[in-house]
């Protein structure tokens, strides 16, 4: 999907002003010449079942263009997905989930889910090589054993043991 070809969010929203325009775009991208192919049996004939649904003749299963894509199973509109993709991919350092949730009027959890799907689809890996001066620090996270509830205390705990702590390291 090449939603990054737009110069601004306004251009994107002009191009995809309706849900139908988003569906037509996906059909052109997903299927050769926009002719539907069944994900269940590629050799099967496909019938137009309803406005956005198709039916595979051999398996009698219904499907739409979002099957086997990052949009599969999502109840969000494709316009929101397209805006999220644009916002995530058009910024050099990305966009925070909280900011994106405000921009597309969904919850933080929904944006987090969308972020995971988009990153998986585009193969975005958040790895960068460190160069120059690097600062490291480590700590152990977890409360004191004596302050825990009786059944949450770590057995055979003595001194500065970190059996009950999680090591954490940060780099800058």
Automatic annotation (TrEMBL):
Official protein name in the record: Uncharacterized protein
């Amino acid at each position: 999907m090449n939603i990054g070809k737009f110069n601004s969010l306004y251009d994107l929203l002009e191009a995809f002003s309706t849900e139908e325009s988003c569906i037509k775009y996906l059909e052109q991208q997903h299927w050769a010449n926009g002719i539907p192919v069944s994900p269940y049996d590629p050799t099967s004939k496909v019938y137009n079942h309803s406005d956005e649904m198709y039916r595979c003749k051999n398996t009698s299963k219904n499907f739409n263009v979002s099957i086997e894509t990052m949009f599969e199973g999502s109840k969000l509109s494709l316009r929101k997905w397209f805006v999220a993709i644009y916002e995530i991919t058009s910024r050099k350092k990305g966009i925070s989930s909280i900011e994106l949730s405000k921009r597309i009027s969904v919850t933080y959890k929904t944006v987090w889910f969308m972020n995971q799907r988009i990153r998986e689809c585009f193969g975005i890996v958040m790895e960068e090589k460190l160069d120059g001066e690097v600062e490291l620090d480590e700590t152990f996270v977890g409360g004191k054993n004596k302050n825990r509830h009786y059944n949450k205390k770590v057995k055979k705990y003595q001194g500065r043991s970190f059996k009950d702590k999680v090591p954490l390291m940060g780099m800058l």
